[in-house]
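Budget justification aside, the reviewers requested a transparent look at the raw inputs and outputs of the sequence design task funded under Objective 1. We therefore reproduce one unedited record. The lines immediately below are the structure tokens for a 74-residue chain.
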């Protein structure tokens, strides 16, 4: 049985590049259940020997809703 479009989940996401980092933000919600998942973080290039600088997630600007923040180093 098909689900009506108005009852389906919603998602918002965006990506930017700031200070040499690839930043992302993703939110998934449902009109009746509310927020399902929300996460944000960044990717940054590796150093010359495969090492990366670890940056505190607290340095990210706070968003309008509470989300988990992740720093991912390749």
């Amino acid at each position: 049985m098909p689900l009506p479009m108005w009852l389906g989940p919603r998602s918002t996401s965006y990506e930017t590049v700031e200070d040499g980092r690839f930043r992302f933000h993703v939110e998934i919600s449902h009109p009746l259940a509310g927020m399902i998942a929300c996460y944000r973080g960044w990717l940054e290039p590796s150093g010359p020997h495969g090492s990366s600088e670890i940056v505190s997630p607290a340095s990210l600007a706070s968003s309008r809703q509470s989300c988990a923040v992740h720093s991912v180093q390749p």
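The radius of gyration is 16 Å. Residues 5-72 form one domain. Computational costs for records of this kind are itemized in the attached budget.
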